[in-house]
Design the sequence.
C-alpha cells in the first residue's frame, strides 16, 4: 500500500471548474474520509485519481508512481493505475458468482488460472466470505454484496482503495456493520483508503483523518476528527459536523450581551480573549450546553425527553429556543430538570462566527441543472 498525493489539481467540465488547485495527501495505511455536501466535487476527485477525467493542472502521485502530471505530460491510463474501487451504484455483477466477481480483475490481467483462484479465495477470506464463493449476488444480503465488492477491490493488491459512498444504499443497521467491517479489514491489511461520503457521522466513525470540502469545491480543513470537532476552521465546518445553537451577540468594549429577544449579559468567562465579537453569533453544540445553577444565564425547560442513553431538552432563554443533548454522565452530575423548571446554563467551548447571509432561493430550473452524475460519466 502507498500514500496518495493530489497536488494543485484543477478539474472541470466544459469550462465549469469544480476543483481549483486542490491538494490533499492520504498517508500510507490510513483511512482518510473526504466529506462534503452533494455536488462539491468528491466524485470528480475520485474520477481524476482513477484516470477517468483529466485535470488541467497539477499532479497525482501514488507512492513513488506519478499517475498524472500536467506539466510533465504524464497521464497513466486508467487500467494501469492499480487502484481498487468500491462504490454505491457499481456493486457486484449480478450474473457472476462471488468468486467470478472477485477473480475478474485478475482475469483481465491474464494471470494464470491457479494463481487467480488462490488470490480470489484469499481476498474472500479477508472479508470473511469464502463460504459464499459459489453464490450469486442475488443470494446475498446488501452488506455481503458490498463485502464482495471490497474483496474485488483488494484482489489485485491495489496500491490504494477508493470507496465512493459505498454504503449509502444499505439500511441503518447494515451501514453500521459495514463501517465496522471496513475499519477491521483496513486495520488487518494496513490498507490505504480514501473514503468519500457526505455523511459526517460515518466519517467520524471510520477515519484516521477527515478532509472537509466546502460547496465551492475547496478543502477547508484537514485533520483528525478531534481537531475538526474541537477546532473547526470556520462556520461551515462547525455547522457541517454536528448540530448547534446560534445566538446573536451585541455590545462592545468587552461588555457583550446575548440577544434572545431580551438581552442577557454574556458571562465574562465566555468572552474570548482579544477580538471583537460584536455582531457575531455564539455557536454552541447541543451537548456543550451544560446545566449550572451558579450561572447567571437562567433558562426555562420547555420539554425533556429520555432517549435510552441520553436526554434531549428544549429550553427557553428569553425568547430564544435552545436545544440540549445530555449524556448519562452529565445527567448524573448536573441533574435532569423537568419541563416548567428554571435552570442555570453555561456553554462549553463556544465559537463565535459572522452571521450567515440569507439563503439564496434556488429556482426549480436551477435545481434541475444540478442533477447527479455517476462515476463513469453522465448519470441518471
Ligand atoms: N460528467 C459531468 N458533466 C458535467 N458536469 C458534471 C459531470 N459530473 C459532475 N458534474 C458537475 O460537477 C459538480 C461536482 O459533481 P460531483 O459528482 O463530483 O459531486 P459530489 O461531491 O460527488 O456529489 P454527491 O455527494 O452528490 O455524489 C456538480 O456540480 C456536477 O453537476
Ligand atoms: Mg459523488
Sequence:
Amino acid at each position: 500500500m502507498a500514500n496518495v498525493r493530489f497536488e494543485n489539481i484543477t478539474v472541470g467540465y466544459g469550462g465549469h471548474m469544480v476543483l481549483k488547485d486542490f491538494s490533499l495527501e492520504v498517508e500510507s495505511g490510513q483511512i482518510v474520509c473526504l466529506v462534503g455536501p452533494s455536488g462539491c466535487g468528491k466524485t470528480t476527485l475520485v474520477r481524476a485519481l482513477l484516470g477517468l477525467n483529466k485535470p488541467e493542472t497539477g499532479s497525482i502521485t501514488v507512492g513513488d508512481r506519478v499517475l498524472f502530471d500536467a506539466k510533465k505530460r504524464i497521464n497513466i491510463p486508467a487500467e494501469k493505475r492499480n487502484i481498487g474501487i468500491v462504490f454505491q451504484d457499481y456493486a457486484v455483477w449480478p450474473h457472476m458468482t462471488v468468486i467470478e466477481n472477485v477473480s475478474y480483475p485478475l482475469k483481465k490481467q491474464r494471470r494464470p488460472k491457479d494463481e487467480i483462484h488462490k488470490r480470489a479465495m484469499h481476498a474472500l477470506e479477508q472479508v470473511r466470505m469464502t463460504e459464499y464463493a459459489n453464490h450469486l449476488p442475488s443470494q446475498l444480503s446488501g452488506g455481503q454484496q458490498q463485502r464482495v465488492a471490497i474483496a474485488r477491490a483488494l484482489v489485485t493488491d491495489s496500491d490504494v482503495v477508493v470507496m465512493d459512498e459505498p454504503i449509502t444504499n444499505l439500511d441503518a443497521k447494515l451501514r453500521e456493520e459495514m463501517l465496522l467491517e471496513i475499519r477491521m479489514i483496513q486495520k488487518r491489511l494496513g490498507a490505504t483508503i480514501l473514503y468519500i461520503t457526505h455523511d459526517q457521522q460515518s466519517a467520524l466513525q471510520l477515519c484516521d483523518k477527515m478532509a472537509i470540502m466546502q460547496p465551492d469545491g475547496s478543502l477547508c480543513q484537514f485533520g483528525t476528527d478531534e481537531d475538526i470537532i474541537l477546532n473547526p476552521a470556520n462556520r461551515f465546518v462547525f455547522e457541517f459536523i454536528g448540530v448547534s445553537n446560534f445566538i446573536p451577540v451585541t455590545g462592545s468594549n468587552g461588555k457583550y450581551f446575548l440577544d434572545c429577544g431580551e438581552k442577557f449579559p454574556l458571562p465574562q468567562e465566555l468572552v474570548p480573549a482579544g477580538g471583537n465579537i460584536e455582531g457575531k453569533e455564539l455557536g454552541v453544540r447541543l451537548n456543550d450546553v451544560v446545566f449550572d445553577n451558579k450561572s447567571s444565564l437562567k433558562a426555562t425547560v420547555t420539554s425533556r425527553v429520555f432517549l435510552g442513553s441520553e436526554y434531549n431538552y428544549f429550553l427557553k432563554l428569553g425568547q430564544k429556543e435552545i436545544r440540549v443533548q445530555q449524556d448519562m454522565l452529565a445527567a448524573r452530575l448536573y441533574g435532569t430538570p423537568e419541563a416548567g423548571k428554571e435552570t442555570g446554563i453555561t456553554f462549553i467551548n463556544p465559537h463565535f462566527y459572522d452571521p450567515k447571509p440569507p439563503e439564496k432561493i434556488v429556482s426549480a430550473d436551477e435545481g434541475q441543472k444540478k442533477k447527479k452524475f455517476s462515476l463513469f460519466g453522465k448519470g441518471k
Observations:
- The chain has a mean pLDDT of 89.
- Residues 13, 18, 36, 38-44, 198, 370, 372-373, 377-378 surround adenosine-5'-triphosphate (ligand 1) (CB under 6 Å).
- The longest strand covers residues 16-26.
- Residues 164 and 196 are 5 Å apart (CA to CA).
